Fold this sequence. Notes:
The protein is an alpha/beta fold. Helix content is 40%, strand content 14%.
Amino acid sequence: xxxxxxxxxxxxxxxxxxxxxxxxxxxxxxxxxxxxxxxxxxxxxxxxxxxxxxxxxxxxxxxxxxxxxxxxxxxxxxxxxxxxxxxxxxxxxxxxxxxxxxxxxxxxxxxxxxxxxxxxxxxxxxxxxxxxxxxxxxxxxxxxxxxxxxxxxxxxxxxxxxxxxxxxxxxxxxxxxxxxxxxxxxxxxxxxxxxxxxxxxxxxxxxxxxxxxxxxxxxxxxxxxxxxxxxxxxxxxxxxxxx
Length: 243
C-alpha cells in the first residue's frame, strides 16, 4: 500500500514545493495577493479614479456642483451614459496596456469587477456586449481585450453576454490620430447582428479616447432597435473628455 501511494504523495509534495517557489504576486507591486488575484487590494485602491463629482453623461470628473462636463453640455451623445474608472494614466494605464498588448488576460478580472460596480450604480442592462475587434489584430493577439472585460462584467452582473456588433471594414490603428480623423474612420463602421426590440444594452471597451468608437457602437445599436445604451471602459484617455 505504501509503495503504491508513494508516486501520488511525491507528486503532491512536488506540487507544494512549486507553489512555495512560485506564489502568485501582484502584477503592479510584486507583493502578496489573495488566492490567484492578479492585483493586490492596495494597488487596486491606488488606481487613478474620478472623484465623487462626475459628468452625468460621460462619467469623467467635473467640478463639484455641476451635472455635465463642458463637452456634454453642448453636444448630444448617442448613448445614455458612459462610465470609466479614471483617467488613462499611472498604474491604470499600465494595467490596461498589459492587458491589451502583453497578453496579461488575468488583469481583466479585477478591472471587470470595478466596471461591474460602476454599471450597477448606473443602470440595469439586459445584455452586455463589447466593441467588436479588428479581425487582423484579433489574429495577431489571439484574444480580444474588450470581450474578456465584457464577459467578466456580465458574469458579475448576472447578465447575458452576446457579440451584438460586427465591424463592416478594417481600420488602421487609431492611437495618436487626430480627433476628426478618428471620427471619419469610425463613421458607419459597426452594424448589429439582429434587431433589438427595445433591449437595454451595456457596451464595454478598454479605453475611451475621443469617444468616436463608443458613439458609433451606440448608433448602430440604436439603428437596430435596441433600447438604452450604456458604455463602460476602464479609462478615459482625455481628462476633460472630448467625446
